[in-house]
TrEMBL record:
SUPFAM superfamilies: ABC transporter transmembrane region, P-loop containing nucleoside triphosphate hydrolases. Pfam families: ABC_membrane_2, ABC_tran. This is Uncharacterized protein. Residues 760-797 form a coiled coil. InterPro entries: AAA+_ATPase, ABC1_TM_dom, ABC1_TM_sf, ABC_transporter-like_ATP-bd, ABC_transporter-like_CS, ABC_transporter_sub-D, P-loop_NTPase. Keywords: ATP-binding, Coiled coil, Membrane, Nucleotide-binding, Transmembrane, Transmembrane helix, Transport. GO terms for cellular component: peroxisomal membrane. GO terms for biological process: fatty acid beta-oxidation; long-chain fatty acid import into peroxisome; peroxisome organization; very long-chain fatty acid catabolic process. Belongs to the ABC transporter superfamily. ABCD family. Peroxisomal fatty acyl CoA transporter (TC 3.A.1.203) subfamily. Residues 529-764 form the ABC transporter domain. The chain crosses the membrane at residues 38-57. Residues 807-901 are annotated as: Disordered. It comes from Parathielavia appendiculata.
């Protein structure tokens, strides 16, 4: 054996050596024939190309390394890159890879949205999705024409071009599906052959059949795995397209993310459920249905043809008949899966929404100790979900029974029947029948031929039954897909409606101040903030009309004219900011404002400070990212200066640097959050800024400094506050108040009874107003003096009544008025006076009763005054100040005696 192996080894080596010699000789001969110069040149070319390839490889490696480092830095700083074509490059950290993945995101073009409006806002009448009017009315989800229109419309987003990645994935998926069908055919034939050889006792062929079987099995397994893989890839690709499209439509300058909840209301409060869960389920269902329907469809065509050939036309008619019957019966008894899925999505969304609310408001709920109440809300919602799921499962039992019986048993029975055709009715039995007739002549070969044909046909029929059952099961899946499709279509059509402001009422149904009644104009690019005859209206959800807060407001704020807007709670102060920011519609009149948000434009600081996810740096520069900051040539040192001005210089050290990531809304205190908002203002340096109660939690000394800093930076401030004390930092004062509270106003009046008045701070008119107010206060004070005198008089009289004791005359002494301290010194004279006046018992009792009533009223007033801690409000030189109650005056007013004026 060893000698044999050595021999074989030597032979192999010799063969290799001969091969090398042969080709070396060829090269040598060729080289000998070429000239010296050619040889030199080719050597040079070879060396150059090697050097160039090396250089390229090095450069490529360097670029990759720089890219990787940049990616890691961008991930750390929560930032991205702007590309010249308007796209963004972001780096996504992989969980089990040290390198982040690079993703380029292209924003959907406005033209694409316009082109798609036709599909989502003006569906064809035949689809039954509304009557051509926008917004389209909702249809019941189901397998109908509306479903066809919806899925085709969504397909135009998911597969935008025939050469897109998604189309390529689908084509490869289809190729593998067809390959698997072909393999099933080959397997069916091989199965028949193996059984035939086994029955015939042909061992060699039987073993060879097994080898082929195993080889085929390996390839079939690969095909199946690829089908699954490509199905998932298609689902992810669809989801990526749809999610990016929805995000571009949802989060843009038109503020659709605000309007969809606050103005349109078409999605309820669960847009997140639509975008996350429903969208993902829709994509999974579409991709799996493609393979669930695509493969069985191909299978059915191919296997039916094969069976037609081997079993004859009667078998084909039988097969088609059994499909038709099964489809009709199952269709009749099928529950409305689409509707059920759509309803399930909604209830799931509501439940999830409640949990999201709990997380967002955890601190507030914890302070109120509201866990029990929140739990009962959650349990109630979950019960609704559970009841619904119970109902769905119960409905499914009947359908599953029917489905199982039809697919597993009735089809196999008909399969046996059809397979017996060539045996019992050979004339009608196709190829099988013919071979049956031929086999009768060959003794012994008949059984074997029958066996082979039967096994092949049985396998074909099994595959056919499998394909048919998948089609039948897919009817249910198709119904569920219709439910998801309806939800996703509703999401995108609602977004298109909000984006295009496509609100058209039916004739004669236009409500005042509804979304279809928006007639105002917004002028962007104005250097200032101007409102001309603009009604301030709190909008209601479409199609209801809004509530008018102020009927016509006109004002103008120019550079350097700082304006304070004050008024009672709920009067509509923030509403003005909402109208100017474009959150609420301009129903009438003209609104002019700067175009840009932020630098050189306008900025709005909302009442509730917002802190984003990300690093500490992101909190200061929001809504900019680090890339924007670098583009503006601003550095961390600049940010430190900004924080210093906002009195937050200690934050970077305390929190461990600029790149620290935390849940900032929980980390920063109320005042710190407000100062962070001011820091943002100082970073962006806009020309105009709305500050809505932006310093209410900041101490008054720091408040003054912040205002001065902002003004020094050239920011024109428009402050919204209930505190008139902020007036000293402003040039103008817009007062909003109920009509009766605003005397001598030369402003406008609101339909809701709200009037407005614009005053210049510190002018003669304002001083006059202040003087008038002072006069009124003095008058009130004089009244107080009169009340004091009257009170003393009553006390004296009461004292007399008590001492003389009218009850004594009756033999029933009156109980002493315990709340009153009787001054003995004064008593005698007054008692005499009283007696002299001859006050009767009844009269005295009446007097006492009246005094007690008066005392009760006065005590209530006093308590109120004490709770407020202030006595009256005075106006000095255009600044409202509050005067504390003078302690002496308090006691004089009866604190000591228990009587208050
Ligand atoms: N999204 C909304 N939809 C409908 N009405 C709203 C909406 N937001 C506020 N309102 C109503 O509009 C009115 C004015 O609200 P606004 O927030 O402007 O009050 P405000 O004067 O700023 O009060 P505060 O001093 O309490 O902040 C209130 O009656 C409020 O209930």
């Amino acid at each position: 054996m060893a000698a044999q192996s050595t021999l074989r080894h030597t032979a192999a080596e010799e063969a290799i050596a001969a091969f090398i010699d042969k080709y070396t000789e060829i090269i040598r001969t060729k080289l000998r024939r070429t000239s010296r110069t050619a040889r030199l040149l080719s050597t040079l070319a070879l060396a150059t190309s090697i050097i160039l390839a090396g250089l390229c490889a090095r450069r490529r490696w360097k670029r990759k390394r720089a890219e990787r480092e940049q990616g890691q830095k961008l991930v750390r700083t929560n930032s991205w890159l702007h590309n010249s074509d308007g796209s963004r490059t972001i780096y996504v950290p992989y969980i089990n890879r040290d390198r982040p993945a690079k993703v380029v995101i292209h924003t959907t073009k406005p033209l694409t949205f316009q082109a798609h409006r036709r599909l989502f806002l003006n569906p064809p009448r035949v689809s039954g999705l509304g009557d051509g009017h926008v917004p389209p009315t909702q249809t019941k989800p189901g397998i109908n024409l509306a479903f066809l229109h919806q899925i085709l419309s969504l397909m135009s987003i998911m597969i935008p071009r025939w050469n897109s990645k998604e189309a390529v994935l689908l084509v490869s998926h289809s190729a593998f599906l067809m390959l698997r069908t072909y393999m099933s055919l080959v397997v069916a034939r091989l199965d028949g052959e193996i059984v035939r050889d086994l029955v015939a006792g042909n061992g060699k062929m039987f073993l060879w059949g097994l080898v082929k079987w195993l080889g085929l099995g390996g390839f079939a397994s690969y095909t199946n795995a690829m089908i699954k893989f490509l199905e998932c890839k298609v689902a992810i690709a669809f989801r990526t397209r749809l999610t990016r499209y929805v995000h571009d439509l949802y989060l843009n300058d038109n503020l659709n993310y605000y309007k969809i909840h606050n103005l349109d209301g078409g999605l309820g409060s669960a847009a997140d459920q639509f975008i996350t869960q429903d969208l993902s389920q829709f994509c999974d269902a579409t991709a799996s249905l493609y393979s669930a329907l695509g493969k069985p469809f191909v299978d059915i065509c191919v296997f039916n043809y094969q069976l037609y050939r081997s079993l004859g036309p009667l078998a084909l008619a039988g097969l088609v008949g059994s499909y038709w019957l099964s489809g009709t019966v199952m269709g009749k008894f099928s529950p409305p899966f689409a509707k059920m899925k759509a309803a399930e999505g909604k209830i799931e969304g509501d439940f999830r929404g409640l949990h999201a609310r709990l997380i967002a408001n955890a601190e507030e709920i914890a302070f109120y100790n509201g866990a029990e109440t929140e739990k009962s809300f959650l349990n109630r919602e979950f019960k609704a979900l559970r009841d619904w799921m119970d109902h769905v499962y119960r409905t499914r039992i009947r359908y599953n029974m029917l489905e199982d019986f039809i697919v597993k048993y009735s089809w196999s029975a008909s399969g046996y029947l059809l397979a017996s055709l060539p045996i019992f009715l050979p004339a009608w039995g196709g190829l099988g029948g013919k071979s049956e007739q031929a086999g009768r002549a060959v003794k012994g070969g008949r059984e074997r031929a029958r066996m082979k044909d039967f096994i092949t046909n049985k396998r074909l029929m099994l595959s056919l039954a499998d394909a048919g059952s998948r089609v039948m099961y897919s009817i249910k899946d198709l119904g569920e897909l219709a439910g998801y499709t309806s939800r996703v279509y509703t999401l995108i059509s609602t977004l298109h409606r909000v984006h295009a402001a496509a609100y058209h009422p039916k004739v004669g149904e236009d409500e005042l101040f509804s979304l279809s009644d928006v007639q105002g104009t917004t002028q962007l690019g104005f250097d200032g903030v101007r409102l001309e005859h603009v009604p301030i209206v709190a909008p209601s959800l479409w199609p209801q009309g809004g509530t008018e807060l102020i009927d016509s407001l006109s004002m103008i704020v120019r550079q350097g004219d700082h304006l304070l807007i004050s008024g009672a709670n709920g009067v509509g102060k923030s509403a003005i900011a909402r109208v100017i920011a474009g959150l609420w519609p301009v129903y009438r009149g003209l609104v002019s404002r700067p175009k840009a948000n932020g630098e050189d434009g306008i900025m709005f600081l909302p009442q509730r400070p917002y802190l984003s996810i990300g690093t500490l740096r992101d909190q200061v520069i929001y809504p900019d990212g680090e890339a924007d900051m670098r583009e503006k040539r601003k550095t961390d040192a600049h940010l430190r200066g900004v924080l210093d001005l906002a009195r937050l210089a200690y934050l970077p050290e305390r929190e461990g640097g600029w790149d620290t990531r935390k849940e900032w809304k929980d980390v920063l205190s109320g005042g710190e959050k407000q100062r962070m908002a001011i820091a943002r203002l100082l970073y962006h340096e806009p020309r105009y800024a709305f500050i809505d109660e932006g310093t209410s939690a900041v101490s008054s000394d720091v408040e003054g400094l912040l205002y001065d800093t902002c003004k020094k930076k050239g920011i024109t401030l428009i402050t919204i506050s209930t505190r008139a004390s902020l007036k000293k930092y402003h040039t103008y004062h817009l007062i909003l108040a109920e009509a009766e509270q605003l005397n001598g106003s030369d402003g406008g009046s609101g339909g809701g009874g709200v009037r407005w008045e614009l005053q210049r701070v510190g002018t003669e008119t304002e001083k006059m107003h202040a003087r008038r107010e002072l006069e009124e206060l003095r008058e009130k004070l004089a009244q107080v003096e009169t009340w004091k005198a009257r009170h003393a008089e009553i006390e004296r009289e009461l004292g007399k009544v008590w001492v003389e004791g009218a009850g004594e005359e009756e033999g029933q002494p009156l109980p002493p008025p315990t709340a009153y301290v009787v001054d003995d010194d004064d008593d005698d004279g007054e008692r005499g006076e009283s007696m002299g006046k001859g006050v009767g018992v009844e009269e005295q009792q009446q007097q006492q009763h009246e005094t007690e009533v008066e005392r009760t009223d006065d005590e209530a007033d006093y308590q109120e005054a004490q709770e407020m801690g202030v006595d009256e409000t005075e106006t000095e030189g255009g600044t409202l100040v509050t005067a504390e109650v003078d302690e002496d005056e308090k006691s004089a007013a009866g604190e000591g005696s228990g009587v208050v004026v």
